[in-house]
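// run 5 | inverse folding | seed 20
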């Protein structure tokens, strides 16, 4: 489709272009094995983290990416004893907080699912057929 001048219309900017780029792009990461160990420890009452993944892994919460940046002041207060990545890591750093971390899951949720076994057992509402369609 073209504009009235005959030039092709530009693709819309991605949603995140409305926000500043994260200053620290070298995010820390945790492997699946470490995260599942943390989940098992949390099941025993020793949870000192918040897992944000879309709400599929047991005990995690869903924070749509588009809501993260404008919600950081509130999230920082709520997650003071936990962690969330990128912009949130900048927010933590800007406050001089050296105790809180923001890391990513190595391989993401798709890597978690690919391993199967105890990993998918920790997912609420896991449906192998639905995940097969996402590959």
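// decoded
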């Amino acid at each position: 489709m073209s504009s009235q001048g005959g030039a092709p219309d530009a693709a819309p900017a991605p949603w995140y272009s409305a926000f500043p780029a994260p200053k620290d792009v070298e995010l820390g990461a945790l492997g699946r094995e470490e995260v599942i160990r943390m989940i098992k420890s949390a099941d025993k009452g020793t949870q000192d983290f918040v897992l944000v993944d879309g709400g599929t892994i047991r005990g995690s919460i869903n924070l749509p990416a588009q809501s993260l940046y404008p919600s950081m002041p509130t999230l920082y207060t709520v997650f003071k004893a936990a962690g969330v990545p990128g912009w949130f890591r900048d927010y933590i750093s800007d406050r001089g907080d050296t105790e809180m971390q923001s890391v990513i899951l190595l391989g993401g949720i798709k890597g978690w699912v690919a391993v199967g076994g105890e990993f998918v057992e920790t997912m609420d509402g896991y449906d192998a057929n639905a995940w097969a369609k996402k590959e």
